[in-house]
Amino acid sequence: MRGVGMLERFDELTTAHVADACLRVGLPVRTVSLTAVTGGRVAGRVLPVQHVGSVDVFLEAFESAAEGDVLVIDNGGRRDEACAGDMVALEAKAAGLSGVVIWGLHRDTVDIQAIGLPVFSLGAMPTGPLRLDPQPADALLTATIGEWTVTRDDVVLGDEDGVLFVPADRIGELFDLAESIRDTERRQAAEIRPGRSLREQVRFAEYLTARAADPSLTFRQHLRAVKGAVEE
Ligand SMILES: O=C([O-])CC(=O)C(=O)O
Ligand SMILES: [Mg+2]
């Protein structure tokens, strides 16, 4: 699954559903809280870059980008400079990319919003970089976003809750599971509204009784037994 196909399938899901799917199959839940500058959603293969003070590394990455890739910028979480703005967003869009994810700050917010390419970042700041550091040898191979180091073998998903990284070769399986979690949650929601409480649906009273007898019983174990979905 690539580019547009992946985005179409993710369009009916959220990062929360896929994060819960990761938890269920025992994958690390590689999420980061970032703001959606343009409010859009993104799903695509990671195009990793490490930024050291100049946009040239982005332009170099675009030279070998594939349709639907997402530029994932490691700026070390710095909050003293913006590392990408509307020029980078526009060039990314023209190169066929489907979004930009920044572990750092952006600028040119209004122009980025007008371009419409989904951009996720820690926030905005007027100044660009005032430094230029040496470029590491793996600057176009890996990016560290929060505590997660990602490569071309990863897919990034982004929405209003932030971003999530998943292994590209597990995406179909994770989407299948995320869809079933979403369907369960929708069914539960559809019953809460007319008055059948979540506690009733997940037999919460039974859980409290069972936990009194066996304090090691967790709510997650109980949810699995009754096939409910809330937190995974
Ligand atoms: O932050 C930078 O220097 C890059 C920039 O402004 C842009 O892409 O428009
Ligand atoms: Mg600019």
Name its key features.
binds oxaloacetate ion; 22% strand; 2 domains; Glucose Oxidase, domain 1; three-stranded parallel beta sheet; single chain; binds magnesium ion; 232 residues; 9 helices; elongated; alpha/beta
Question: What do you see in this structure?
Answer:
It is a single chain. The longest helix is centred in the C-terminal third of the chain and has 22 residues, at 171-192. This protein folds into two domains: 3-173, 3-Layer(bba) Sandwich (Glucose Oxidase, domain 1); 197-232, no CATH class. The chain is an alpha/beta fold and 232 residues long. It starts with a helix and ends in a 6-residue tail after the last helix. The strands form three sheets. Strands 1-13-12-3-4-6-8-2 form an eight-stranded mixed sheet. It has a three-stranded parallel sheet with strand order 5-7-9. The chain has helices at residues 3-10, 15-25, 56-63, 86-94, 109-115, 171-192, 198-201, 204-213, 219-226, and strands at residues 30-32, 35-36, 42-50, 70-74, 82-84, 99-103, 105-106, 119-121, 123-124, 143-145, 148-150, 154-159, 162-167. 38% of the residues lie in helices and 22% in strands.
